[in-house]
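ugh ok fine here u go
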Amino acid sequence: MSKRLEDFTTLTFDCYGTLIDWETGIWDAMQPLLAADAADIEREDALAAFARAESSAQSAHPGMIYPQVLAHAHQAMAAEFGLKTSDKLDATFGQSLPHWPAFPDTARALRKLKTRYKLVILSNVDRAGFAASNLKLGVAFDAIYTAEDVGSYKPDARNFTYMLAHLKTDLGVDKAEILHTAQSLFHDHVPARAAGLANAWIDRQGLSTSDNWGATAKVAERPNCDFVFPDMISLARAAGLA
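structure:
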């Protein structure tokens, strides 16, 4: 039996790549390094390098807070491209997350969805970083769970176990009520399906019809998705809320 959007009471979101335009933020934050080295690197190549560097740092250092992960990723990207970085450049990139922009449709879509659903964040960042981004999102979330709270980074199953346990105790929400909503197949949809969650893919990159992985690590096999939307406002429209 196919699922319907009205079957759910709670939408759990990834933030970066889904609500916040992290690819633009990452690319903008790389410009000081590229300028310092007078480097001619394509945006697509830079984002692919970030995907490799970020997932490697998160796997190797699960207890590290996200600004440090970003600094490590910046250093690794510089090494991959043969560029000369510095502690200052690495640290500046590490602190760039509060400047990453929201997608233009995000705040309006969230406000519409808030009229029907509980809205929850499960994000691979630290609490302070998400608090800065939250100022751009236009709603108060019913719960916020970060990698800093869990002590690991998605796609680690511990992040979803933590979220499910806390949603049950904090908000009285059962797994069957939850629709996990995210852009990243790697960080979110593979582990969400493994956790038995229904899922909605916000395919910002058009991956369903292309091979543009951007800043997201690739997966060998694409997981099943209950719903696919090109952006957040399309989800709100499909729910009859926009």
